[in-house]
Batch of 4 targets.
Target 1
Amino acid sequence: MAYQKVNADQRAPGHSQYLDNDDLQATALDLEWDMEKELEEPGFDQFQLNSAENQNLENSETADLNLDPIQPATSPKGRFQRLQEESDYVTHYTRSAPKSNPCNFCRLLKIFCTAIILFISGILIGYYSHKNCPSNATSSGTLDLHLYQEILKTIQGEDIKKSFRNLVQLYKSEDDMEISKKIKTQWTSLGLDDVQLVNYSVLLNLPGLSPSSVTLSSSGQCFHPNGQPCSEEARKWSSQDLLYSYAAYSANGILEAEVIDVSYGNADDLKRIKKMKNVTNQIALLKLGKLPLLYKLSLLEKTGFGGVLLYIDPCDLPKTANLSYNTFMVSLNPGGDPSTPGYPSIDGSFRQHRSNLTSLLVQPISASLVAKLISLPKDRTTNGACSPLELPNNEERIVNMKIQTVTKFETVTNVVGYLKGVTFPDRYVIVGSHHHTAHSYNRQEWASSTAVITAFIRALMLRVKRGWRPDRTIVFCSWGGTAFGNIGSYEWGEDFRKVLQRNVVAYISLHSPVRGNSSLHSVASPSLQQLVAEKNKFNCPRRDQCPKTNISSEQIQDDADYFINHLGVPTVRFTYEDIKTLEGPSFLSEALFPKHATKIEEMDPFFNLHETVTKLSGEVILQIANEPVLPFNALDIALEVQNSLKGDQTTTPQLLALASRLRESAELFQSDEMRPANDPKERDPTRVRMLNDLLQDMEKSFLVQHAPPGFYRNILYHLDGKTSQFSILLEAWEHCKSLASNETLQEALSEVLNSINAAQVYFKAGLDVFESVLVGKN
């Protein structure tokens, strides 16, 4: 065809104001008017387009104007590209004039000149539209790594460090609202579309007026949780650390009983101890780690214990972590406001007054206090090896533990900001961090988290101000109430559950960017592990010296919990850790130590690690928010299921057969639908939208109804990076060994079986729908 008419009022769905260009539109309108005048002149009266050419015109016009949100722009030369491709345009579309016509030469000359003018005008218009409106192309899913790097190159460690130090100055206020308002002001000034403060009135369990204490009955010596003798001087020395050395939502009271060492408190430990002693209403000396704390406490409660002294063995920590005298805080809240379990804490909601979530008196204590209780020497190293703390079986220790906490309703505030997408504004990529919560440790980890998310927002908005926007909406969240059981994220999730179930495609956690400085640890859903591995390799400066990729799908302690376990949302988190921490027992991060600003700056003095985490997370966010087809891998989920069943002594033939069928369906889905959709030449907008809807809901099939306390409901996540079996099957097998009945094991097997079957049916139904659509079109 020769040219394309462009109406000034044509806009793509979700078209952004940043894509408008008045000068270009005016030029196009003038050109349209001139061409209409030309067509009215003699010689053009029989200029006609057949039906096939009309169809080409429509397709070309759509592609050039980017009305199709999926297909990328095919040429930078704009609306008149086909003039180049059809050199015989003049003879192809004009009739031959009679030889006797004296104006034949003039008319041919006029046609020739008109074609030349159109050709040059097309090149100029295409050039300037490409130059001045880069967002028109990039908003259609054609972003590549070069653009990602251009956005992220402005992120600098020094800027994150300055932001971190500014945030640290705010923590001195006990008012959670002040920090939230500062974050909102900063995000608004950076240019986010809509930044809101979302408040919830929730039930918090707070320390009493005086710190808890542990008293040796034999000597009458009284100790604070950090191992210091009970005295007014010791209380003043570190008053806040002593007050906040407690277990939130523990039972209150006084208990005098024998201390029984239960080690890590697993089923085998308890079975062994019950054969030796009467444990009813006694006090368990429990190590943190290896299993979720809530699960271990549930076992102790069922066994009959009345109290728990909880500690971390120094042998489980890196040598650089000198925490012998440090106490810590834990929360016994599985998630959300305890007064509104399963529903949001909004005005008018029924409130349950639950001052404690367990019948046990639970008190965290330092390793130095444990050493005093069992009368061990300070130096416990043997030939350079650390000797674990252990209470001799033949010795008896009677202690008196006193716990006093108070419960009251307080306001928890979330900061939520939006960057609206231009093509799929109803699909959300959520980026989560957390900020300081009043009435808890003055930890500086929140400042690290907030500084990182703010650095990414700043880099992103610099590009937005130049006219670019992501295809999908990015939602930035700074959560409150994290220390008390991820309360802010749970309440927001419950409040907007229906919308989030339908619209959220991924959650990127920036909860703990730097917890060590020796190893990058990546946690990702199975469907996103391939993407994360690619980012790790791409950001390694020398491929031959790249460390082994450390990626796993394991339980994490942060605000991603609700999105993983209740919405089945694919999740990614990058964190720098100490290698010793990764090699040691899992779940030590359940302990909240009072980490001060100097410690974080010691681990990362130039904030280069913070910069790396920000850029890695940013690339993942950009790719998920901009790729026409979500970068999720369906086959990896099926492979993960098969790997989780390998070597598992509880596996049945039915499970293995279902897992095999799931893999077959996933392979068909990957080859028949994903591969063509990733080819721009074969990409159909309707099918791509259907495909993305299937991809974002893949993990929902693996949410089981019942999981042990502290275990993920999403069975694709393992207890730690060292185990590959389904966690609920592992727990059920351990439970079965200690009981005569195997009912618990059968229930767990049924949960896993139904999940795998639901996933297989889901993929199969998706393939059937695509096939039906294809047949209908043909």
Note: The two ends are 27 Å apart (CA to CA).
Target 2
Amino acid sequence: MNDSVVEQANQARLLATAEVARLLANGDDLKRVAALREDVLIKQQANKAQLSAAVASQVEATKSGLDMLTRAHQALVLMRQHFQDITRLCAECQSLIDCHDKIAVLSEVHYNLRKTLQDVENIAALPLEAAEAEEMLRDNVNLLQVYEMLASLEGTSMKAQQALESGTSVNLREAHNLGSYFQKVRLTAGKFEERLWSIIRNFLAVSQEDPGLLVTAVQVVELQEMVDAQLVAAGQGASPLRKAWRRRCLSQIAMCIQDSFAPLLQRCSQLIAAGENTDQRVTEILDGADDWVAQLAPIYDHVAPCFPPSYRIFGVVCAEHHRQLASMIDFIGLCADNLANADILKAEILQRCKLQRVMQWIAGYQESLGEFGLEEEEVAFPTGPQTGVSLLINTYVARIVATLSSWLSNIVEGDFKYEPKASAEGRMWTPGAVDFFRILNEQVAVVAEVDRGDMLLRVGQAAVATMDHFQAAQRQHVSAGLPLEMLCAVINNNMRCYDESLEFAEGLEERFADNFKGSLDVEAACRGFLDLAKEGAAACVAVVFSDPAFADLFTRLYWTEEWRSGDVTSSVLATLEDFLQDFERMVLPTFYRRLAEALLEECVAHFVAALLSFLKGVTEDDVAAIRRDDARIRQFFARFTKPEKVARECQPLIDVCEFVTADSIESFVLSYTALLTSAPSITPTLLANLINARATSDKNMTKADAREVLEHCREVFVDRQARSGVDDGAHSAAQSAAAAASAAAQAKGAKAPTAKEAAFKAAVNAARKRSAAGALTSPSKPAAT
């Protein structure tokens, strides 16, 4: 160690000498000796201060180490003493091992004795604590505290009773004395429950006057629910301490509502005995029900916040209200036959200050519940066949149907009893269509104010059925035969009804609730009016062609000189011109062209039938006259409809002309095939006269040729019928109406038709049946002229 210090000192001296030599390397460096000495002094002082601090720190660390050694020594001494004590105690306890069983028994006896004394003290305190709880119960503020006290007392009482019941040497007198203690607890608990349920039953008033009390009562119920859950989890679900107060709470609320509704339902039950005098009673009942509906707002605002959300207490209260009000409606429904429609439906209209009636009340009630966020199915009354709502709806709808039927009969009778009216433009019309839809719209509007669901649907169905009846009633008059002016009125009226029915259907669909939209099909009834207008047009055509003078013109076609000269055809077209001028004045422009097309179709059918029936020979002059008639018809009707329509309708006439001018059997077959395309109902039998006329005029055609041509035509006809599957007896509605109207027109004072006339009519009917849609079966949207 000394050598090391000496060595360090020598090294320091050498380093110092080297440093001085470095600093004084030149002679000029001697001038800086004073400055160097000052620097060395400063460094020396700094080193000295640093050394002093290091020495002081080392001294302090040494002192701290000495203190720690002193404390460690003291701890070791103390630990040695504790070990000595442990050794001594172990030596003392060594002798107690032989008495271990006696010590355990003594300990258990001591515990049981202490527990028994504690239980005796608790049992002795039961009456006093129960009385204290009963006294506290006088103030509702202590409700929660009283519950906690009673819960503890009931637990103590229950354990004591179980101990008594399990004991084998219990004195009966002692048991009886203890029973009075338990009875006091039961009586106090009963009073507490009575107070609790009185608060729950009076939930509305308490929520408004003292909501904190209602909240406390619900807290008590929730605490008991927690106790019940713990008992169930411990396998003690059958314990008397499990009380299911939440279910009982909801039951108390329901019973309170039922008791409150009892007077109202009692008044409802008296409706049945009231007979016909129910109006004032129903008004009073609904006024009373309004008071109950008015309670829903304060229940929503004051009662619901006092209950946990899991209770959904507003829904529970509303559901019970709903059941009671449904019973009220059922009672009223049983008396529906004694209520006028105004009593069933009458709404509260502010301008008239009238009272609400049953269905309006139901709608307002459901709307009120909807404002509280209840779903639609939650506010709907039962709709079974015997429920009050169904009985009321059935009664009302039955009366509406009867009323509409009565009005319908009056409207139709009034329409066809008097002459039709003419508008400023000369259009024929009757007021029935206007009145009919005004009545329907009024009925639907009245019901829509009350109900947008099942009742509106039922009334809408009744309205649609009434439309069908209205059409059927008109159809009977049309088929029975009507004057031309009245038929024009039928066309115009039903065109207006068609537009009105579309508006009615659109308005009805808008009035329906979302879940009822699309549930009523009005389209078929709407189309029925358009079809009836078409039938009216067909009847107009039938009246025109059933005119005796006009019909006689067709019997002179294709065999008389006046036909060959063109006079007959001119007369036919002139007559049609007169009728078309009348129709242009009397019929709506939207239907005028359709009527002109119907006249075109019937005109061509009569010309074709006359050609099939009356042609006597086939000369060049006859063929030229046939082609001339075709051209004149085309030219005439081209003024009233499209040329392509005219060409299509006139095609059968030119096809028949091609048939009679055929020059071979193959040509006859081809021309007949073309004829069946444009007029598929012209049978080979109807062609017999044409073939005979051709055979009579053509020296190159024998009777055998004629028979062969006819036989080939039959084969073509049968083959075509088999392939197309067309029923030769099928008629369109318009053609049936035309035939019926024609027959009705001829039946008035006319004698039975001759065989020739019957054959001509059969030919006309065959010529009417076209492969393409005729004028009266064109698209439902009328074309503009």
Note: Residues 341-356, 726-735, 771-785 have pLDDT under 50 and may be disordered.
Target 3
Amino acid sequence: MSGPQPGMPGGFPGAPGALAGPPQKKLDPDSIPSITQVIEDDKARLGGQVFSTNIRGQVPPLVTTDFTVHDQGNASPRFIRCTTYSLPCTAELAKQCQVPLASIIKPFAKLPNNETPLYVVNHGETGPIRCNRCKAYMCPYMQFIDGGRRYQCSFCNCINEVPVFYFQHLDHMGRRVDFYERPELSLGSYEFDATLDYCKNNKPPNPPAYIFMIDVSYSNIKSGLVKLICDELKTLLEKLPREDGAEASAIKVGFVTYNKVLHFYNVKSALAQPQMMVVSDTAEMFVPLLDGFLVNYQDSRAVIYNLLDQIPDMFADTSESETVFAPVIQAGVEAFKAAECSGKLFIFHSSMPTAEAPGKLKNRDDRKLVSTDKEKTLFQPQKGVYEQLSKDCVAQGCCVDLFLFPSQYLDLATMADVPSHTGGSIHKYNNFQVETDGEHFLRDLRKDLQKSLGFDAVMRVRTSTGFRATDFFGAVYMNNTTDVEMAAVDCDKAVTVEFKHDDTLSEETGALIQCALLYTTIGGQRRLRIHNISLNCTSQLSEMYKCCETDSLINFFAKSAYRAILNQPVKNVSDILVNQTAHMLACYRKNCASPSAASQLILPDSMKVFPVYMNSLMKTAPLVGSTELSTDDRAHQRLSVMGMGVEDTQLQLYPRLIPLHDVDVSGEAVPAPVRCSEERLTDSGLFLLENGQSIFLWLGQASPPDLIQSLFNAPSLAHLQQGHMFTLPELDNPLSKKVRSIIGELLEKRPYSMKLQIVRQRDKPEMLFRQFLVEDKGLHGGTSYMDFLCYVHREIRQLLT
């Protein structure tokens, strides 16, 4: 097949997949490919349907489409998505098209209620069955031969004996008779109970623990934050995650407060009052008590309640404003070591650690470095103490979740280095105020504390012969080139894995990927979680392009660009992104499209909106050389994206802009989003914009008074308070209920909480909102989508001549 045939996908007005004529100054914005249109089309075609995974190399519906997965031998796209589902057969072809070959793996992805949770397989004393040579786990791709007595591994072709207990006869098709009874033979994803060989020191693990570490320095006490945390924990600890079917959570809890020194609390259930022990020698960190520090919450509830009541009062008169930070993490690691368990530290911290102690930091924020060759140093963590801490944390299975409440620069690049290598999350609340940010922070804390996750995890990605995993991007630690180590991995974290050829792939056998994750459950069991996927291989570039997935490609490019800025100037990285975009599209034009005038821009159907995402990526804070952006904010966005899955990067790079002024208040439906551009806003309109990190309600200056009355209980826009507004009042009318329910559902659905910002057209805060209209020119530099498309088109034409 040679490129788009008449009537084939890929077309927008003009010609199949073409923009007619030389790029004129005034192209019609409606004639260039639109993300909202692509999303709506996919929903119309595949929304609400069942996606069965029984076919090799099948391209799934988009991440923005609601569908149900039926696992029939390949992992659900919720667990694994790929940049293309048809790999080029040779390294030459791959080099020619420059399309990265990668998978985005989210091993703990949440499954909707109507999909079956993973089966757990137990092979008894012998443990999971594995190939003797390459150690791949038993899966649907293994070929049983010799009447079922042996099997050939599809990854390395080695022939293995079938253990006696596992023997089963084959049917006339050569399939085992018990094929459908065994998850590992018929499903793409499943778990194995791990034997003691898979445990540290060959003994079963203890259940994990959570330690809450609260900075009680002056600013946190004064803002009311410490009291807010203590009050919330009283109810939140009732909701610690537990194994399915378990009565109570097996997770133990502990409490530390700190400023320049650390205070540990004994909350043993036999005590009438909690006891405090102070460690002031922060250079040699140790945990002053073993018994009574990590406890079962249900047993010690009364003592813990007492403690949470007392903490805000104990430090009410503090004037201590200096803090330590590295020793706090060190204390958590030591506590887990002593208890022989893995776990998570929840650290609530406000300022740069300047007190004399290991890991003390000094201000190195220098915006003069922006747009110079030294800009990369702003993103690099300071070496030494924190590097070693990451290593110690991973070795112990200690994950760090960091909640930051800064009022000025605090060197986030260094402070967030440990969370970003231990599978942790980094939350940041600038100039925190309880009234406006309290709920927003508590939503994050609740989500974080209740997430399903695995601890002390190691992931291996195996492939069939001809290609291999070469690079890994994520909130992970790599001690060697193959083992991806994660102190914890939760349902939102994804690892992006790049593959390279080391031989020719065969169209007949295809390509296989097996991701195996060894981890400890929240109940303290050692398990292996296996995800398998089979892809096609092709010697036709047109087939490879047809099976590409733009949302996965952009996830890969975002992570690889965000890693690259650690080592080279931001400008170089941006140039590479543009060149590679032009190269990928020129290769399609040259090899796959039917002949047409050079002045036509022809894009593969699967990538027709790729330039929108790429242009948006280049306008994100880490890649924009602007001195107006805060260094900490840039570092924060860089690190957040490294752990994201495909859904999250898609939304971050193309926010949803939802018109609410004519919403059907009686129906279930949410209005279809419109394109992210100022041209789509109307003076009399009301729009909601969200990208998974921020959420805005935009009010046009001519908003009808009855709309304003229904939502704000005010007669007109002019009556609303000037400046920043953050909440919608709870009013008893259909419009208010509908809008609040739409916002509530979004807050529920996204991995992070978002703080609602209400902005009026032409008010000052509207500038914040405008930077999310990604089809327009960037506020801090960066071109509009239209200009970028014309620029890429020129680059393509140069490459072709």
Note: Confidence is low (pLDDT under 50) at residues 1-24.
Target 4
Amino acid sequence: MAAPVTAHNSYSSNDLSHLARTECSKSESPLEDENFTDDVVELVRKEIGGDLKSLKKVSGLLEKLTLENKQLEEQVLTVSSSVPLRVSAALSTAEESRVKLESLLEKERVLSNTLQQHLQGAQVWADGIGQVLGQLDTLERHMKYLQCLARIEELSDSIQQYLMTNSMWDAVGAIDRMASLDMGLRESGCSHLQAFLRETLRFWHKILKDKLASDFEEVLTQFHWPFISPPTQTLSPPANAQELNSQLELLVSQLLSLQTSWTFSLTETPSRPGQSQTPPLSLPIQIMLLPLSKRFRYHFTGNRQTNNLSKPEWYLTQVLIWMGNSSNFMDEKIQPVLDRAGAKVNARVELCRGLLTLAQEKLAQDAPRLLYDDALFCHLVDEVLQFEKELRGTHSYPRTYPGVLHILLEETVFQKWLSVERKMAVEKVDAMLSAEGAWSSQYKDITDMDELKAPDCAETFMTLLLVITERYRSLPCPRAQLSFLALQKELVDDFRIRLTQVMKEESRQPLSPRYCAILNAANYISTVLSDWGDNVFFLQLQQAAVSVGEEILGPLGATETGRLASLEGSLFEALLALLERLRGDMLGRLLDAVMRDVKEKAQPYCKDRWISLPSQNDQATMSLSSSACPMMLCLRDHLLQLQQMLCLPLFQTFWQGLAERLDNFIYEDLILYNHFNEGGVAQLQYDMTRNLFPLFGHYCKRPENFFKHVKEACIILTLKVGPALLLCDMLKQSEEDEGILNHQQPSPESALNELGVYKLAPSDVQILLNLRSAWLKQ
């Protein structure tokens, strides 16, 4: 019984394997069919597994899969049968839409044709209506034109009626309404109507202004206007002072009301270069200026003796006098009236503006006539600058309003001014350099005032530059100020060249007072220019030079422009560099001359027999070497002489340079050139520390710090025998072990530092130790 069951199980297993192989053999598709076969095999293994007892599940699995397959087939049949129905419904809807669209298009064509026919028929009516509307528009414009004319005639009649009844306020109101009508017509194209209205407005404006001006002048006359001479306190006020004040206030108010936005100024002046646009003068001030203007033109025009080209101060002074005489009346009488009328103007400033107009017109006429006479032109410029200074200072004229300096900024006048300044400056420089006391200081006998020891020529030259600065400081145009700055820099460079030429003539005697005076002059100019570089005025010019300076000062370059903009450099940087070069060259020549003299006097001292001098123990007292006396005396005399002739900064630079050169000379030509015994070393140290160093001790606290070679050489030479031998052995050992690191042995530099030697190198110390070899071997 067991055999059949086994056989059946074997058959079933083989059948499953055959089924899997059959499914695999039927799969001829690519990767996705292989995946499907794997899924089937995995399903069989999952549901049945490898246990033969689980084969009873095959029938249930088969039924389940058959049922699922049937359900899927039914769904496919349902979908396939419903799809054609939806497609046919969509096609039917599209067909209906197409039919409706064709119907609508047909209706649109019919309606368009009907509308076109209607428009063609209505065009005739439209053309007729357009002609009628055009005629109506023309009639309307004609009516408005006539209405404007009627309005003008009405206002004119009103003004005439008001004038006849002396209703001045009503007349002023009618003038204002007529001016408003003119403002409204400005955008229209009715040029003839505008011209007629303006002529009418001008006509009535003049009549009303003349009437008010006449009344205003009568009132002013009773106040003794104009004040030709200074007003006196002895004049008693008029009996009807209160009535006059009321009339004054009424007339000023009416005149201010008459001055509408469309007003006619009595004193219109064309704008000039450098002159800002200013509002017109108020009408009361214009009327007050009339008698002063008549007097000015009477005296300073035509063939009057007071109209003299060589005397511009006459009319400029007269204008200032009138300003001063009238200031109290303007402040006490006119200003309160203007304030109550709501006029935001300063009466005194307004009067100054009007009087300045007279001076400006006169200057504009006279300045071109003086271009060919340098003396008269210079006099004119001086008077104009003085007038501007007094105007801004004494009379407190605001800087926001132009004065008279813009007259000097017109191109031809300004170029003439520059050329005359250059010519006069060059002539003064020639005169000051050829003067007898050009190279002596006027403060030489006053110690406190002669720190820089500047010669007269240098001080006079810088005073000349300062005067030029004060002349152009108040100019309202930065370009003009930069032009004068360029002139100053040109003059400084010319003076530097002249100093160089004189210096070359004196270079054969660099210790002469004149040579030192030239050096002091270069230092003085450099010091003053450095101070100017930090001055607020020149810093402002520096900022202006960044934006407009290239047109006047030439191309600056990106680096220089950046330095000027950041205030790192100064406008005088290039000149300071040239002056520093001159100063350095002259100091070098001076040091060369002194060192030649010192070296000549030091030759016997350098050739002393230092190796055979007696020991210090053999001498009762140490004294200066006799051979060193000429050198020390020479040094002392030169130091005292140059301290008197050079200014303090230059002398400090000089003696420090001399100490450096002398240090190198003694070290190289004396110490390294000789061998020393104990007595020679002691004598050398005594000469240096007790005689040479104290010579420079008058100018600093520790003069030995300026003789580092000599000081350190004396330290090495005066070492005792034991320390000297140890130091020599260490230096030799260090030289042999060069390149080998040895942290236990101190470096030669640290050993020398412990002895106080910082300047000399180990190799130099070895040379010095060898100079005392005669007694090192003992």
Note: Residues 13 and 52 are 8 Å apart (CA to CA).
